[in-house]
């Protein structure tokens, strides 16, 4: 029998505390399923944690790192250990890099907000990280000539001279000064949470007055936001897969690549924070906010009329001008969106779903759903479970 080749020893210095890092690890795992497996050293840590000290002297064949320091980079280069650097916070000369295309991320966010009719834009990011600056540049370049552009940036971590409360107060002041309606890109989902929290404290209508989109699509964080946060979806699994493939070739003796590999984002998951058509009509904007808050509580058009103090004919005319549909149709769309969410994410019976989405009877819900969606609620639930 032929001798079994010893496995390559690879250190993975990748954060396991965030969804992004875990997705990178899944991509590496998918590559190894179809190729020669490695003996892997995985150090459990948070993003931006210092790399383990043992790495400086470890007998290893390769490294994939998202926590590379200048000292570690110099050590790996000196020892000629094949290394893929995925650290977004800085560049290290001499190491091959595989990164998210951050400028493409910004461009995608800008196009998303423009499609919703926004003509005024802002970016909320971090002043001390290259990835945030690149996302801002991609966003700004995509809206050049399409409207005003406003920026707020602060350091990633609050310093001893500035508490978190003070920074959040600055964000509130910045938001309060912006023209409305406005579309805002946040550098990542956590920054999006900061912006949405400030909007809530200022009682700014989201998404009617301020629409917010984040980056990374951390589903738990996005769904915990109020309202749930839309987010650009990067492709960390592919980043992990490509990094593993390049490292494998380097460990086999191929020359080190000199050009950075940029991986484009996959798309956008739209949630309530941008699920709107921007309008500067105050009656339509106020009505949309009322509908989004009350559609699933058996809201009627008469109740909207009483709160915005206008006539039915004026409201109908303005809705059709700006949205292409009536107030009642908008109520129905919000209700059906809630029904779809409950069918996809819960096992609740149809009677309970009808109650939670503003329908008086499950039978009527079934009739409306079949007419508007083209299938029964039961068929929709089955198809969602097969995705």
From TrEMBL:
Domain of life: Bacteria
Domain HTH araC/xylS-type, chain residue ranges per copy: 285-383
Alphabetical list of InterPro entries matching this protein: Homeodomain-like_sf (IPR009057), HTH_AraC (IPR018060), HTH_AraC-typ_CS (IPR018062), LacI/GalR-like_sensor (IPR046335), Peripla_BP_I (IPR028082), XylR_PBP1 (IPR054031)
Ranges in coiled-coil conformation: none
GO molecular function terms noted in the UniProt entry: DNA-binding transcription factor activity; transcription cis-regulatory region binding
Keywords for this protein: DNA-binding, Transcription, Transcription regulation
PANTHER family recorded: LACI-RELATED TRANSCRIPTIONAL REPRESSOR (PTHR30146), XYLOSE OPERON REGULATORY PROTEIN (PTHR30146:SF24)
Name of the protein in its database record: XylR family transcriptional regulator
